[in-house]
Write a structure and sequence with these properties.
Elements (H helix, E strand, L loop, with lengths): L22 E3 L4 H9 L6 E2 L14 H20 L9 E11 L2 E2 L6 H11 L3 E12 L3 E13 L4 H10 L19 E5 L2 H5 L3 H10 L17
Parallel strand pairs: 1-2, 1-3
Antiparallel strand pairs: 3-4, 3-5, 5-6, 6-7
């Protein structure tokens, strides 16, 4: 038997990968979820915030979008913090407002509301505001407001009737969804297209990255590449 003492294994174990902070999306909107997934972000939890979205007297469309997004983030933050795994996470909230001048258009719930919106938007310009708010631990809040200008063609009675029959207007701010059939109505758009859909992905990604969320993490996965 050799008198040589066994050599200790000095090979260091590979460092474990730090856990990614959880992301809570304060929205039930399938459009916002799809836009996040488009840039490789999959929220860990969906936690819609049910709040009163009526404008206050004299409130501008810009101020309304900002107030609602921040309120949604605050409500969802309180709910998220009741779960220990969410305490170190980020809460992402957004609100989209469609306006003609200072007039805020509703999220159409009835055919009459949608028809009134389309008649108002026909042949004229309007603005779409989306406020994005991210709530981080230790009362850190970051917010951005994005504005897009949109002009509709002059709509015929037949076009309005056909769009109303499609049902795509239900629950949509301004009574239309630009990512659907109503894309045929858009004569001009200045600004972010995804903002009109419901979440400006450029500004959202920057907000999350600024709070150390690994936006690019999933981009290294070849499985994400679509043919």
């Amino acid at each position: 038997m050799s008198d040589t003492a066994p050599t200790a294994d000095t090979t260091a174990a590979p460092a474990s990968k730090p856990a990614r902070m959880p992301l809570i999306l304060a929205s039930a909107s399938p459009r916002r979820l799809a836009l996040l997934q488009q840039i490789g972000i999959d929220p860990d939890t969906l936690l819609p915030a049910d709040i009163d979205e009526d404008p206050r007297r004299g409130e501008t469309p810009r101020a309304l979008a900002q107030r609602l997004a921040r309120t949604k983030a605050e409500v969802a933050r309180r709910a998220a913090d009741r779960v220990a795994d969410n305490l170190d996470g980020l809460v992402l909230a957004a609100d989209t407002v469609v306006a003609v001048g200072r007039r805020v258009l509703p999220k159409a719930e009835t055919r009459d509301q949608a028809e009134a919106c389309l008649q108002l938007l026909s042949g004229r310009g309007h603005r779409v505001y989306t406020a994005v708010c991210v709530s981080a631990p230790k009362d850190v809040v970051r917010q951005r407001l994005v504005e897009t200008r949109v002009r509709f063609k002059r709509l015929s009675r037949a076009e309005i009737a056909a769009y109303l029959a499609s049902g795509e207007w239900r629950g949509k701010a301004g009574g239309y969804a630009i990512q659907g059939l109503a894309g045929a109505f858009v004569a001009k758009l200045v600004g972010s297209y995804t903002n009109v859909v419901g979440l400006p992905v450029h500004e959202t990604a920057n907000l999350l990255a600024g709070l150390k969320y690994p936006v690019l993490e999933s981009w290294h996965d070849p499985a994400r590449i679509r043919p």
